[in-house]
Amino acid sequence: MSGRKLFHKLSSIDDVISKLSKYLELKPKGIEYVNLDEALNRVLAEDIYSPLDYPPFDRSEVDGYAVRAEDTYGADEEHPIRLKLIGSVEVGQVPKYEVTKGTAVEVATGALIPKGANAVIMEEYTHKVGNEVLVHRYVAPGENIALTSSDISMGDLILRKGTKLEPYHIALLAGLGVRRVKVYKKVKVAIFSTGNEVVKPGEPLKLGMIYDSNSYYLISALRKLGAEAEFAAHLPDNYDLMLKELSKALDKYDVIITSGGTSAGIGDLTYRVFDSLGNPGVVIHGLKVKPGKPTVFAVVNDKLLIGMPGFPLSCTMVFHKVVRPIIARLLGIEVIDEISVKAVLPYRLRVGKGRSWLIPVSLVSDGKKLIAYPVTFSSGSIAALTYADGYIYVSEDKELLMEDEEVNVYLFKDSIKIPELTIIGSHDIALWRILVRSGLITRSKILHTGSLRGWYAVKNGEADIAPTHLLDEETGEYNIPFLSKMGLKGVAVIIRGYKRRIGFIVAKGNPKGIYTFKDLLRSDVIFVNRVKGSGIRVFIDLQLKKLSEQLGLKFSDLTSKINGYNYEVKTHTAVAAAVAQGRADVGIAAEIAARMYDLEFIPLATEIVDFLVRRDRLAKKSVAEFINIIRSDIVKELLNELPGYETLKDTGKIFE
Predict the structure, then answer these.
(1) pLDDT tens, residue by residue, 351-395
(2) How is 200-256 classified by DSSP, letter by letter?
(3) What is the pLDDT averaged over residues 419-430?
(4) DSSP run (H or E) holding 298
(5) Global pTM?
(6) Dihedral (C-alpha) 23, 26, 29, 30: value to the nearest 10 degrees?
(7) What share of the chain is helix, strand, coil (3-state, %, to 5)?
(8) Domains in the chain, start-ordered, CATH in brackets?
């Protein structure tokens, strides 16, 4: 067993493929033939040329009558032309008749065109009388006929080598009579999850443990790409066991991917096991990228081993940007398309120079351009990619992205769907329920940025609606004074929402006797704060300013005495979770969060959650629907079901 190895030399993500290629041929392992019904997601190992013309014969595109076009000239509703009906042709039949001057043959859609005919008149423009057809409209030569090879000519290149076969490719091949195709052998990939803290979904989750999400993501993503991926095992942090299991897997699989245990920490074993399996062993240990620095690549016995970071966001971003192109090469896929769109940033973004960054973003539109909102989650997030439409790649030489700077957004999907309703601002549990109950949820995008950033999003035209509960220090009034302070008088309006109780959340029975803000100064109390820009953070700081004045202290001196003032979380439930798990003794959040975690709630205030809307969006259908819902009995009934929520006498009223 080798000694502990730190990240001595990190590799640029642009150099990964070239470095690996020194030790391993990144190409498919072989070729085989498969039937079309087994060809989905397989990769063609040869160019395919059409073995025939398509259509293979002149055929009718409609139900009607095969005619000589020149026999119909001059026909209209008032002056129909009579043609003699000499027979009919069904689909699959060879015509027995020849169309000559003044005659017609009845044909079905897809039927072979009889000799002599050069057009088909649709049945709708004809009238049959005995053995004659009255034509009420003229046709041009070639009308309603699909000519031989008008779609594909014999010998045309129809599919390139390296194409991953989709359903429409398979339909094309079947239509040309191709029954079997030559494809590259699938790359076989084993997925191992590692770590003593990881448990399978469905099992009880003890404190300090996490569910394994990475394995499920990797298997799904690899199968979608076309690889033969399967879950091999979960491995605890045990060097000998890991060495044994990975050694066995080398005999069966082409690629081994582990999740977790890749960083230079004392308990991370993966890179040491990789290095012990054979030569050359680890060839890349660490990438100059965030997230994803602790990524490991090794080569053993012409097999590729990849150690992925344990944090879900790191794992998924590195897979998409770095690992996916490698697996594509092993599958024989010649081109991995990264579809991108242009967008601008809503605010300045500082990144660390000296490494590249992969930043997931969510796209919204102001009607003229796309705006890329960074999805601000930690590397451990499992939700980030459900919010994100794509990511931006920031090169190693940049450390600052400016507001309104144009960036390329690389999409996670083949296309983007701009939502009908964009909501940016404060996190509120009731809002989710309202959107679900009303059916608007399927047409909406919600970004939790805090109340203040929601105001800027509305001001800049990036959001239709901003949930807000900002308390004005001067008037003690919620939200309405900020129309003037933010320069939005005449630009936006406030739709009165509802009230919710906020207060201290503490353990059951309030064991530390926390009742006032002064209690936060005690040395035995650990506080969990809310992020800057959130409505509750404004409320907290306002109360602490009042306390600092009472005690004759500077605000900064007072907050320095609060153990946990800089411990900031984004949501109400995050506050409750911190208390429930013993990481904090107290925090401030909505009452419903305390009930969800079965904690004690000590009321402090009733705040008002309103909705800021741009004037020019009031007539927008989805916005009007939302306002009508706020005014309806649906909201009243829903809020009655949620602890701490209540409608107001003026709920739904517009304030300008």
Answers:
(1) 877 889 998 888 888 778 888 988 765 555 556 667 788 899 998
(2) -TTS---TT-EE--HHHHHHHHHHHHT-EEEEEEEE-S-HHHHHHHHHHHHTT-SEE
(3) 88
(4) strand 296-300
(5) 0.74
(6) -130
(7) 25, 30, 45
(8) 13-28+186-327 (3.40.980.10), 31-54+151-184 (3.90.105.10), 59-146 (2.170.190.11), 340-418 (2.40.340.10), 438-655 (3.40.190.10)
